[in-house]
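so the lab meeting is tmrw and i was supposed to have these ready like two days ago... anyway. pasting both below. for each one the top line is the aa sequence and the line under it is the structure tokens. i havent really looked at them closely yet so no promises
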Amino acid sequence: MTGDNWHSKPYYSLDAYCKNTYGEKLYKIALNAGLSCPNRDGTLGTGGCIFCSAGGSGDFAIKTSDYSSVTGQLAAGKALFHDKPTGQRYIAYFQAYTNTYGPLPYLRSIYEAALREPSVAGISIATRPDCIPEEVVTLLVNLKAEFPDKFVWIELGLQTIHEETARFIRRGYSLEVYDRCVMTLRQAGIPVITHVILGLPSETREHVLETISHINSLGIWGIKLQLLHILKETDLASLYMQGDYVPLTKEAYLDLVIDCLEQLDPHIVVHRVTGDGPKDLLLAPLWSLNKRDVLNSLHREMKHRNTYQGQLYHVMT
């Protein structure tokens, strides 16, 4: 099932997709456009989701205090990859906070600034499904027409399909809002990447696999499977310190990732199977800091089990 298209991995990784589509590895540069989030500016709340740091999930983004413009941040990001032996193009990743949550002229200006950069192959915009009004969809469609040789992706932080969990983590929107947004973006020809968090409080293996099944049914293009990190000065950190939340062990996490991949549509591009927690903020699980070990362990275990993405996937009829 893996074949040459997956480049020897047991799942269809973003790296494989980029090599198949663009002929080379694309490096991701995380950007901070200085935007906010309705979960922080008082529209829905002020504390954000219970796991979200003050950096709005953009702790690895280039700091706006150092480089205020998108162009400056891209230049700083490219400098970090100058010694890489392969790949000369980049993904401009609008990561921090909610990157469609701002005045339309400003959004247009930051997206166009990234797309005009010759070495940028395209942009990936992290946002919320309740923050993509019709005028933003029109903007994205127009950008695709204006830059036909570059891609425009949208990343949506779903995390879970279960409303009880969503309320507990303070996500702030219903599953219906996510579903409707995905359909709108698909009809507009905008690829959708969905974020799913593994290890959310009170969620079982069955909860997670129900989320994967629902995602399969919507025909999304990409997925990020993210380990739940406990970061300092978050409400999740308080639960952890009080003994009210126990993070996943490495073994439990790998089992859960494999379960997800086995049931995932094999055509969905896997953008992430773990995650990065900033060393200065991460309280637990500390084993996640060794990302290479996590990936190598996952690949070894999948090979040992003779399994792969989509092994248990059944097309819904």
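ok protien two:
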Amino acid sequence: MIAEKDIDQFSVQCKEIFNQLGRDVIGQKEVVEYTVIAMIAGGNVLLEGVPGVGKTRLVRSLGRVFDLPFSRIQFTPDLMPADVTGTNIIVKDDKGNSTFSFQPGPVFSNIILADEINRATPKTQSALLEAMQEHKVTVMGVSRKLDEPFFVLATQNPIEQDGTYPLPEAQMDRFMFKLLVTNPNRDELRRIVGMTQITMDEVADAACNAKQLLAMRATAKEVPVADEVMDYALSLTLATQPDSECPANITKKYVRCGASPRAAQALISAAKVRALINGRYNVSYNDLDELACPVLRHRIKLTFEAVTDNLTPDDVIHGIISELKHPSTAKTAEKDSTAEPANTEDKPTKRRLFGGNKN
């Protein structure tokens, strides 16, 4: 069970994390919040956006704020899998005998910045598959565990730009979130230009270490989920699959391939963290609705008809949510004011920790 001191510590830690990130990253509140949610939940994040919108700066700042060993891999077309995982090299001992010695690659760190991941070939991209899912690396038949916590925070430019390769579906599914990083508005742009005239370096201080992060993750895992909320998360996932027992109508028309079971796992794990960040000790329907797009948008493949109708994955996801029509907590409260407080309620029990989305 969650102890009150654990919840208080979670609150203090999150406040400091967001305060420090705010020193380096202007705007992009939703992207920052969701990236932190994924890291606390133990997931990987794919950040997509055109060059110059702050994707790499955000990841570098996260490395400073979480005070974890940090490696940056610049993905290019000539990068080889061994450049990521490491390889065995021949060395000579004191007696002059030659032996093989493993030289670890940059993946042996806690936070991996896979910069412009879609500029490497699929063969090299797939070198991260085992590390992202199982947190280990196998080279020449020998498996080596990676230190915990371990995250891959990847950036990519939109795949329609020159010199890029689409990520394999198996790798896309290993990202908890795909976040779209947009251009700043005028006020944010003014502040960015002003800040970078002073220094281009990150100035955030450490706000959380590995032990504290793992403790926050353990606290989030204890957040309760009502049966009806769990059923809604499962319904969201199944509704994206055109061949499931209960596909949404929009899915039948516009989706070629739906989300995997990892999507349901990601929805619940991330929703628990979001609930705590928003000052609640239970997961609500709105947590799942707000997280649906970042969790599902990279896990569904649209049909050609969707492309011709100018629909995006987010459009389809919003359509699915509209079709499912989960019970609103407000209507539930009106219907039965004497009912036991449900885990579906989206009412903060503490002051919110981050000034992002209201839900």
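from a quick look at the 2nd one: The two ends are 25 Å apart (CA to CA). The longest strand covers residues 86-92. will dig more after coffe
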